[in-house]
Structures are given as C-alpha cells and as structure tokens.
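Contributing: when you submit paired examples, paste them exactly as shown. First protein:
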Amino acid sequence: MNPVLLKLITAWRLGPVNIGRALYYRLGVRFGVNPVRTLVAQPPAGPFFVAGEVASSASKLLFTPKPFGLDTNFSSESGIPLWHQSVITGQEAPCLPWWQLPDFIDGLGDIKGIWEASRFDWVLGFAKQSLAGDGQALSQLNAWLADWSEKNPPYMGANWKCGQEASIRVMHLAMAAHLLGQVTEPQEGLLELVRVHLQRIAPTIQYAIAQDNNHGTSEAAALFIGGSWLMCANSSGDGEARHWMNLGRKWLENRARRLIETDGCFSQYSLNYHRVMLDSYSMAELWRKELALPDFSAELVRRLQAATAWLGNMVSPDGGDTPNLGANDGARLLPLAETDYRDVRPSVQLASVLFAGKRAYQDSGPWDEPLQLLRVPLPATSVDYRRSCRYDLGGFAVLREAVSHENQAMLLFRYPRFRFRPGQSDLLHVDFWLDGLNVLRDAGSYSYNCDEPWQSYFPGSQAHNTVQFDGRDAMPRLSRFLFGAWPKGRGVSALGEKDGFQTMAAGYRDWKGAYHQRGLALSGSALRVTDDIKGFEKSAVLRWRLAPGEWHWKDDWLVGCGVRIHVEADQPLKRCELVEGWESRYYSQKTPLPVLEIEMEQAGRLTTELRY
C-alpha cells in the first residue's frame, strides 16, 4: 500500500475532528494563539495542609515512594526528591517554559523518569502516615510541597509540560484533603496550588480529548474536582471555578459514552490504562459525594459498572496478578493499598462499591484499605466478576476452567476489533494462567523512549504469543505511538463448548495479505491452540513466551512450570527451539524469559497442546 495513502486512511480512522483538535492545539501553542502561552502566576506558598501539633522530634517515613511500582527510591541527600532529575537515567531536564521543551529531550531519555516524582503519590503517603499517628508527617508534607512549588514555578519546566501530569497532581491533592478531613476548610496555599494547575489544564484539554484515551478522562476529572473545590471554598462565588467544574463534568460524561464500550472495554486496549481511567472516575465520584454535588448520569454509571466488571474479570485465578496487556507506563493513580503495583483488586473493589453498590471481594483483605481510608462504607452484598466471557466490542475473550478444587485456569484472548487506535501489535495473542502462574505471557511496554531494538521489540508482534509473518509486525508502524492498516477480525466465533472444552476462534488478514486464523479449546486439564496460516512470502514464526523457570525437552514435549507443551505441524518445520526473549513487568525494567519458537516456510496448520 502506498505510504501516503496508508497515512491518510489511518488519519481518517483516527477521526477528522480529533485530527483538527490536535492541529489546533499544536499550532495554537507554537504561534502563541492558545492562551496557555500567556499564563503567569507566582509559586503558591504554604502551608498547604494543617499540620497540627508535632508529637515527636523526629519522623521516619512509614511509606516508601516507589517509582513505577519498583523497589527503588527517589535519590536525594535531603530526602526530598530532585524534581528535575530522571529516576531512570539520572539526567536533569532544563527549566524552560514548558511549551519550549521538545517532546523528546536529547540526552534525557524517557521524560517519564522526570514526571514520576511529581505525580504526588507521596502526598497520599504522608496523609496515610499522619492518620497512622505520625505527628510530623504533615509538616514533612508541607515541606515537600513548598520545595516542589519553589523548584517548579508555574508553567516552567518539564513537570508542567503535560496536562495529564498536572491533573494527577490535582487528584492526589484532593484525595489527601479528603483523607485528612481538610476539604471544607482548606488552606489558601492549597487552593492556590490547585488553581494554578487548573489554569494549565483547561486551555489545552481539547488536545487531551483529541487523543481518545485516558488523558481526557484524567484532565476532565481534575477540572471537575478542582473546579468544584474552588467554587465551594469561595462563599462569594467563583465564575472561573464554576466553568472548570462544568467543563470537567461535561467531558467526564462525554468520555464515558465515547471511550467505554457497553461491554466494558476501554479505548486504549490496555489493562493498566483501563485502571487509570477507572480510578479517575472513582475519584470524581468520591469527590461528588464529598461535596454533595448532583449525580452523574445513569448512562455514565452503567458504563462504569461494565468497565469495573471487565477489569475484575482480568484478575488471575489466585486473585493477585493480572495479564501484561497493552501499553503500560507504570501509572497507579490511587496507591492507598499495601499491595503490589500489578494488583488491581483495590481499584476493582472501590469502583464496584461506588458504581455497582456491591463488593467485588467478599473476604476482607488489603483491597479494602482504600475504602476504609476514604471512609466509604462496605456493602453487605458482593458480586463475582470472574467468568468466561467475550468482550467483542473491544476484541477480548476470557475463558476460565476449574483444574481442581483449589486450582483454576484462565485464558485471555486478544483479537482485532479496532474502533480506536491499537497501541501494540498483539493480534491473536493468548495469555494463559494456571492458578497464580502466568505460564504464557505478554512482554509489556518497558519504555516509551528507549534505544533500539527495544523501541520496536516490546510493542511488536515478536513480543506476543502469536504468529509473526516474514519478520515484520502485523501492522506497519507510522510513528512512535501509531500503527496503521488496522485489520478487521475474521471468522470470529462466540464462546462455545465441544467435547468437554470451551472454544473460541478468530482470525485476520494483514495489510500484505498474510492470513492467520486461531482456534482455542480449554478444559480443566488441557489447552489446545490451532493456527492456520497462509499468504506469507518467506516464513512464519509461532512464539510461546514462557514463564521463567526450568524448561527441558522430554521426548517431543517441552516440560516446565507444571505443564507440558507439544507442537505439531502438517508441513515440515524449519526449526523448533527455545530462545531468549524479554519481558517488562514494571515500567523501565526488563528481564529475560524463555521463548519457544516454531518456524514454518509453507502455509499450513500448527497445533499446540498444553497439558497440566
């Protein structure tokens, strides 16, 4: 396909209105037409929170800020983060007006390494520490915020570059005030800190909306939360704050209708970004209740109920980990529970209570901690979201089977249903879980700005459990975050049953004529995958990305991690071997894992059987 025509078709699928919004934003900022260029404000001064009496002369952090969920810390001799230093590379970003900074700064590496410390996760940490009885926690919190305000004067530097990053800070400040009971009588410094953030967010929200992703939901939530807070704090009325509140509510409603499908799928086809979206709406709903504001629409609530059920059904059988599905920048918007970053149960439990009025988990556990801290009553009734289900509007299927009284098997199937732009070339990917072990797994994202081969590897076909044709991706890459020639699903079947197996099938034909049809059959003792392939030029490689561990050949079976794998083909195989691959379970970190590769040079059928 002609490259120009390919880009035009992709632009049309992104939407002419969205393209116009993005161009209007970029041109407006470049030429100074957008009012965001003229913003001027003084750094807000503390105190930001009422510290109360100091109960001890020394204070030890009861929490540890964890960049990207890793067991590492922000580096600083004083204990206060270095706000312009990357936690990934150690390099510092220049302090210029944010609109003068390029999207990718030479020598800095991934800008998310700068942004991580300024997402204000630690604001919630200090609030929790104060509630645990530390009399100095809020004094420390005020000191950190004062240092941040001084070192990040309004609209200067990398930490003001992204409206979503500013929005995350607003949400965390508001939730900390909610935790501490300081919403109705906030400090003037805190309100001013919120105001300078909303002044940055509001003029550019059209760009966030144009992206059809969680940028729009985050920024809408921040405008609604921050605007209503400023309005309620000003007894004489605040027209600007009211405008922000109404603008936020408008886009929260709009984004729920547009980006969340009726079956619960979200536009980004990403498990972690689904959580980011869900947490944003949960915080907006918590805030609405806190200030006794009018209800959101019934349609918004229905979409959020479906989105909660979708995420609740992605939790692994042991109830902890989740598939490494889709793009993932390490975001965790409401880190109140003492759980691993990858555990989504606290978010599912909170959203289920808020939008469905039922617990997702009847038994008590760390997933209840956010509700307890936020003073949200736990309902007596519960609902179990775990079930075999096809989410056809987004292109997902979950199959679940009992292996024994204690053990469960779960399969996640990804197939093309692209109403929105795909973030990874993961067509027909299969994730398989045996109880708590992710036996067949996805690679993750690693980094959005890194050197080759990693920039191409992690989003590409070779990083997923699927067939790669002729050493290329199933979709051509048009830019860092954009694939073209989105294929349509073919031969998609409903969930069925045959000979004691649950079944499902789907396929596609890609932009160069290669065809792949995959059939699945899952029982309590086996998984069978059939791959019919044709239309390629030189070769096709089937990959099974395996859990790290001891794997060895026994006759024609690959044995390890409690399973046996056997692959048959109706055509001669060029090779069948274990090679080294890579995965990223946490952003900016990569580790090796074994990958079974099976290569064919002729059209035919591959049958993989996995027994357990």
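Second protein:
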Amino acid sequence: MAEHLDLHTVGDLLHHYPRRYAERGELTRLADLPLDEHVTVVAQVAKAAMKTFNHGKGVRLEVVVTDGSGSLTLVFFGRGAYAREKELIPGRRGMFAGKVSVFNRTRQLLHPDYELLDKESGADAAESFAGRLLPIYPACKQFQSWKLTKALDTLLDLFEAQGWQNIVDPLPPALREGRGLTELADAFRKVHRPASKADIEDARSRLKWDEAFVLQVALARRRHADGQLPAVARKPAAGGLLDAFDAKLPFTLTEGQTKVSAEIFDDLATEHPMHRLLQGEVGSGKTMVALRAMLGVVDAGGQAAMLAPTEVLAQQHHRSITEMMGELAEGGLLGGADQGTKVVLLTGSMGAAARRHALLDLVTGEAGIVIGTHALIEDKVRFHDLGLVVVDEQHRFGVEQRDALRSKGKQPPHLLVMTATPIPRTVAMTVFGDLETSVLDQLPAGRSPIATHVVPAKDKPHFLARAWERVREEVAGGHQAYVVCPRIGDEEDTTASARKTTSGQEEPTAEDLAEKRPPLAVVDIAAQLGRGPLSGLRVEVLHGRMQPDAKDDVMRRFAAGEVDVLVATTVIEVGVNVPNATAMVIMDADRFGVSQLHQLRGRVGRGSAPGLCLLVSEMPEGSPARSRLTAVAGTLDGFELSRIDLEQRREGDVLGQAQSGVRSSLRMLTVIDDEEVIAAAREEAAAVVAADPELERLPELRTALDALLDKERERYLEKG
C-alpha cells in the first residue's frame, strides 16, 4: 500500500475514502468506461466460451459481463483459463478490475482480477454485499479496491473491539455540537461501512469539516503570529511625494482603486506588518495602486521594492513607473523635483558598473524605489530602510523568495502581493488564507471591450485565412498585433512535447491526432507568416531564450510602433503594456489553461481602440478542449473563468502547488463546492485561535495540526 497508494499508516488508510459506492443492482455504465484506465466494475456474467487459437495449441477464455447498459469482455489466456471457466458461469455476479483496452472494436479487460459476490461457499460475502452499499476505493493494478475493503474491515473491527479509544477528534466539542456534526468514530464507520445514503452524507459533512477546520486553524495561527511581529508604521507626510504625484495625474482613480488604496494605507499605518493580497482583473490598474503605496512609504522615510517574475516585466514596470512619475523619479538629479526620489532597476543581466551604481543608491537610501527580478534577493543587496515589498504575479514566486526579500528590512517590511489571475474566494481563503484580500474588479475609464472568437483551423481552414486578413486590417489601421505560440521551436527534440495518444487497436480520433502533433512554435510560425499571409509586414519574434538585451530591444521597438506583429511565447503573458496593440492570435490555444488564455487576452484592448482575440485550435467540435475555449470566448469575467478552470483541473493541483508541492491534504473537501464549509471553518478557526493561540486547551486539535503540518508544510507556512 505504501509503495503503490502512498498509504503508510493506519491513519492514512482510514482517510483513504471510497471514490463511490456500488449498490446491488446499480448500473455502472459499462458503455462509458474510459480507455486505458484502471477500473473496477460490478457486473453479471452473461456468457462464457473457451476458444482455441494457433491451430489448437493455445486456449483462451472469453467471458462477456453486462450491467444492463453495455457489455465488456474479460479475456484469460493459458492454463489458468480452465479454473476460471468453472467459476465464471452465466448468472454469477462479481467485481472485476483491470485496465480497459480495445480489440476488434470491443472493450476488454485482459486477465482482470475479480471477486465473486455470490459464490455458494461465500454466503456471508453475498449477505454482507446484499446488506450494504459497496465501497469502491481509488485503487491501482497492484492493489485492487476489494483488497482495500478487506484491509479496512480488519482495521474497523479492531477499532470497534477497542471502543475507538485511539481516535483523536480534532474538533472542539462545542463546535461539533453547535454545528450538529457526527462524532469522528461514527464518521469513519459510516464512510467505510454505510448502511444507507444518509450515512454517507453524514460522514462526508463531518470529514469535510475536519479538513477545512484544521487547515484554517493553521492559517489563523499564521495570521495571529504575523500580527504579533513588530513593523514600522509608515504614514505618508502631507505635501510630500504622494500628494505631488496625485496632483499631476491626468485622470481620476476609479472607485475601486480609491477603496483598495485606503485599505492599504490603513495597514501601512499600523505597527504590525501588512500582509495583503491584491487581486485585480487584467488591466484594472493594480500597478497604480501599488505605486501610490510605494510613494507613501517613501514619504514616510522608507524604501519600497517591487519584485517582478521576469526581466521583461521588471523593465516594463521600471519604464512605466518612471514615465508616470516624470520629474518625481529624478530625485537628486538636475531638473528633478524637490520632493522626488530615485527609481532604480536591478536585474541579473545588468552590466557591472550600472549594477554597482544601483546597489550604492539602495544602501545610501538615495533610491526610494527599486524594481527588480530575483536579483533583488541576492546577499549583496542591502537596503537603507526597506519598508514595503510588492510582489507582482505572486504565483510565479516561491515562498522562500518572498521570505528572503522580507529579511532585508531592519524589521519585517509590509508586504503587498499582486495577482492578475483572479482566484475564486474559497481558493483565496484556503491557499492565501494568511493574507487579507482586496479585489479590484472595475476597469479604468477608456478601456475597450475585447471580442474573442474560436477559429477551428481543421474544420474550417478559411476561418484561419480570415484571421490573418484581420491582422493585416488592424495593422493597416495603424495598430499592432501579437501572435502567441506554445513553443519556441529551436529545441533538440520535439517528440517529448507531443502528447501520448490512446493506446489499443482502434483508429485514432481527430482529437488524438491534434494532440499528438508537437505544439506550434514561434520560430516556425514567424517564418511562415513572414513569407505567406503577413508578408510585407514587420514581423519579429520574442521568447525566453533570447539574450536579455535582444528581448528588451524587441519590446522597446514594439512599444514604439516599429514592429507590426510580435510572434511570442507566453513571455508576454503578464504586465506587458502596449496600448496600440489591438489584435492577438493564439495558436494551438487548447494547449493553454483557461486562466492563462485570459491573461494573454488582457494584453490587447488596453487603449481606446477595441481589442480582438482569436483562439486557433485543431480540436474537433464537442471535445473538452474546444468547450474550454468556448468558455473563454464567452466571458471576460476572470473570476467566472477561474471557477471553470478550477472545476476542470484537479483541486489537489491547486493546493498541492500552493503547499510547496506536498501531497494535498484535501481528500473529502472540494474547494469550489464547499464554499460555505470553508467560510464557516475560517470564522470558527479565527475565534478559536483568538481565544487560545497556542491551543493549550485543545490538545486533540494540536495533534491533528501536527499531523497536517509535516515538516515541509510547517516550513511553507512559516515562510508565508
């Protein structure tokens, strides 16, 4: 079990819950069995026949089982076939487990493991089966579902004999009774040996609460500990840099920007470090909010650092911030404003002299604002008085990196984390539960809507030809366009990126063929477009493997309007701001995630002209990949799309990634569906931790917490 199912302890096995339950007479639709997956089915033998092959030298037993919805053939070769022929006679019912394959257009299980449910000798088995719902566990080839059932039966009998005295219940009794939740021992009994569907519901409600509550207590303790740390309160001085900046703004802030700014300035004015997550739709003006916070901190005598995930983005931020600030960004320079400050850029590819200069400005305090990449985290970097750290696109930074930058302050600096990937409320509460959340969901005035369409390149090639005509039209109208591809294209081996297709002997589907082809590449597509549909236009490429200077040069010329079409990888996904770019064509759009497509689309329509985004795909209509693209084309609401994205991906991925790659602790809880449980657990957890931060009066909860927070998770939460 440890080797194949990652179950190491009695506790792991107790928490290995059934995936579903089979009822006697229930129809598990054999017709819908997934190919190439390991399945367990409950079915009845319809017929069995022994056949010979290879001129009578070989024998095979073919058994057809049915569940009323469809049939499945079980195939056994060799001598063992005779013993099975005696057992698998028509009318017998059993559980059969194996990997589904196809032969002669018939679905089959080759040498499946099975357990008969009504052998004459096993009257007990038949009775126990007839008397209850049959748990079907997540299993694998080496360890079938019914072996797990047997192991759990042994375990539950043992616990029953001991009166369940070894079970530690993490929920405080008052909470359990107040919420009308069943006892933990009872929940284990009901989930593994349910007498009715009501039992299963009961058990699930209780076990979901355990997961939600223990996780929220961990996060509440983290928030509580952060609240105890000292920090320097940073209140902007009147008539300083921030006021001067606001006075020269050519527009008024949106209502959302004003509200979120007020929340941030309230946090900055306290003597405990701010920990705030700023979520904003693509183009909602997060950078403006962050810049005002940074200026406020400089006014209060501190320094602010902004950490960006890529050099392209760091350079872009530096450019846009110095442009927005004008002479206020030239503090101490001739022609600079009196109350100005220096804004420096620090990246890994800077020349030695420029780098030395930037480091000196930081240590003397001459530079109030620094914008950089991971280079900011290096040991050599010293600040005069770091007061605020702004992390852009948080999901690209490890906690260790945030932590290293935080340790640069004399006291812990305030922290503002920004993301343009909208996160559903429940995920924010679960993954970023140690951060307070602000949301910007209003677009600044003058932003244009973006029209999105799916271009089915395979079914309707003329649609793709029309897409390139549209790009030419945009360029003819004085605008620019992006073409995005999933791959760079100068890799040694492209076969690795071709995805595996269905095995078995049936014809590959259109979907399989589209998936098997390697993803389209920037280098190839740029050459084809330059020679073909976009000949005569100024086409350039941009990707992560180019030299930093070359990347910056291309971006600068694109921003200046000297390039018509930029063929790029997702390096343009975040923060790139060229208001004159109005069209985007995303090749092999089905190879990108929903949130990523939404991010990419946000690069167009940033000026007054309407934006156009075309999602090109060879996937057939009706396939899951196409329905995903249709969802993206159907709404500009990032929060709605993030829900769709999460529903289509396994939750464990979301949490596993956030919890530093450790196995997700969630077995029963689903982040999207159990919003109410998570919100209620968060409230209860906050109350428990406020009353007893060390959980001295709740030793059982403490034990459960220690089990959840193994070394790795503990370190993750410590680092924030």
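If you have annotations for the second protein, write them as plain sentences, like these:
The radius of gyration is 30 Å.
The chain is about 40% helix and 20% strand.
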